[in-house]
């Protein structure tokens, strides 16, 4: 009898885990020939799988990364797996505002098109600071992409219809922004949650200010993926999380599907400013849809990055 209970419990656990990891694939077969895609952090994880998927559809894919050596290795893999030679990398450090400005200047000089911008790179919950004195999560995850997108926005408008996809996360729901302390950097989980909420507000306000100008904006929760974010933590934590991720998290290829969907889907284009999960529009908590807060964050962000 004990053996029977053990077998039943194991079977139930297996089915539960399988259900938790079940995600939708993007079934839209649209090609992206002639389109240019820029992906931040495209050298690993979800960003790299997104790059492979879009390069395979014919897009010119540029991955923007801080580590040149890792970027070169990733480009070789992306080319091999996508059977495309139209893949390259450019150096970008989202933790440094000067690097972002230099990158945008070089990009605009070298590239005549920008059809899809994917704000993918992110820092996990680390108690560290950017070169400009911002908390690493808020500085990279929000402010870095905020400045990057604004500096590239004229080119996105020129190439309309174009899209901006910003990777957020469902854990936004556990925090609200404190405008007296946007640079909050005390409890790691809450710091990361706030940065992801900022991503959602940013995506909504971007959709508002570009309405009727041919640029659409989407926030995406890709799911919890088996990516390399644990590299910022101790060896013991990495070992523990590797086991947890194997059981509960999805592969980066699967996690990239909603990003790909928002990059190509005509249906997604009807919902600029929307939040997408599992290749479909999803609901947000009421506080995360506050247009007044989104505008206030945008204006505060302009001041923080000195965007005139």
UniProtKB/TrEMBL annotation:
The residues forming the signal peptide are none
Q: Which family does it belong to?
A: Belongs to the short-chain dehydrogenases/reductases (SDR) family.
SUPFAM superfamilies found in the cross-reference section = NAD(P)-binding Rossmann-fold domains
Q: Which domain of life is it from?
A: Eukaryota
The organism is: Mugilogobius chulae
Q: What is this protein called?
A: Retinol dehydrogenase 11
Q: Which InterPro entries match?
A: NAD(P)-bd_dom_sf, SDR_fam
List, in alphabetical order, the Gene Ontology terms for molecular function in this entry. Answer: oxidoreductase activity
Annotated keywords: Oxidoreductase
